[in-house]
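step: validate -> pass
step: tokenize input -> pass
step: predict -> running
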Amino acid sequence: MVRQMRIKAVVADVDGTLTDERRRLDIDSILAVRRLEERGLKVVLTSGRSYCATHALSTYIGTFGLVIAENGGVIGRGPGDYTLMGDRSLAELGLKELRKELGDRVREVQSFQRYVDIVLARTFDLNPANAMLQRRGAGSHILDSGFAYHLVDARVDKGVGVEAAARKLMLETEEIAAIGDNLNDIDMFKVAGFSATFPDAPEQTRRAATYIANRRHGEGVREIAEVLLSGWSEP
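step: predict -> pass
step: emit ->
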């Protein structure tokens, strides 16, 4: 059996995907994103960054405007036009539980205008902390972007963001491709019709992806864009 792709939109992670090893936007990535848009594929940026920052990136990169921020916690098209996908009070409850358990090992990272999540330094082990939050019924969990931890309503992840984007675009999730490089991208890989990552991504992320590029950063994004535009099919 051969499954032909019918992709109509692309959800692309920002940090580690569209950026280079120094977290600067990679010119090749920007050109690839613009080429996808020019060929009729709408590109939705997704990030653990704030909604304000993600929307600004969309404007300057040149995507059509819909973004998914805070790891699926906020989705929208601009100032005053956004939907919160989670409850920040659950993240605040989770933070109290973490501090009871781990004390000063829990360090909050100041980040401008967060609507749903709380950003934490990666100063403790993720899996035991998530297990503790679940045992105590805190209603929140921690997502790892590779750059920081994001404490958020347990109902929120990038997969939820992709599903919300599909509804706004009046598409099926199978018509959406997802591109990402880290553990917090796996949830969107699970719901997308096609998913792509890079050779240096964590093993779990590579296992979850439909396609692994031969190169990383901008060159890898350009390769993935060519795959999408060619209508690549898989056995």
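step: describe -> The chain has a mean pLDDT of 95.
step: cleanup -> pass
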